[in-house]
Amino acid sequence: MLVDGELDAVFSARELSCFVNRAPNVGLMFPNYREVEKEYYKRSGMFPIMHLIGIRRALAEQYPWLPATIYKAFCQAKKIAINEMKEMAATKVTLPWPEASVQDAIQLMGEDFWRYGVAENARDIETLARYSFEQGLATRQLSAGEIFHPSVFEISKV
Q1: What is the reported pTM?
Q2: In the 8-state DSSP scheme, what is residue 92?
Q3: Are 15 and 26 in contact (CB under 8 A)?
Q4: Do residues 85 and 102 make contact, with C-beta atoms less than 8 angstroms apart?
Q5: How far, in Å, are 3, 15, 25, 129 from residue 22 at the CA level?
Q6: pLDDT by residue (tens digit) across 116-133?
Q7: For the segment 74-128, what is each residue's pLDDT rounded down to a tens digit?
Q8: How far, in Å, CA of 147 to CA of 50, rounded?
């Protein structure tokens, strides 16, 4: 659809097939996207939230401990993954300079460069809710309290 002109733009974390196939009418808005994203982070302190876990309201009401338990499990998994990323004796990726990439992220964004949790992402969530309202995607500006189950506000990090 992008190649055919049916879409003006696509927001994606992954390279699209039309980039691989070098479609002549498709290009990056920011060819130097890494520098642009780093500069945005330096200015705003925000890095776009990559994923969000949704739990049906009925499940959360039936099992009020579920949101916190899932959150804690993901925090533990993240801790394991980041520790493995930092382990350079047997790297998990076959890229050149993985240690430098990890250290660059830590230097720019701190040890917790993939923040989990409502409190940890409050500014990002507020901004996203405001953008959604301002751009007509939401009929009113939602608060974090309306978006997330009450139990996630009481969670302490693992």
Answers
A1: 0.74
A2: S
A3: no
A4: yes
A5: 10, 11, 9, 35
A6: 888 888 889 999 999 999
A7: 999 999 988 888 887 777 778 888 888 889 999 999 988 888 888 888 889 999 9
A8: 17
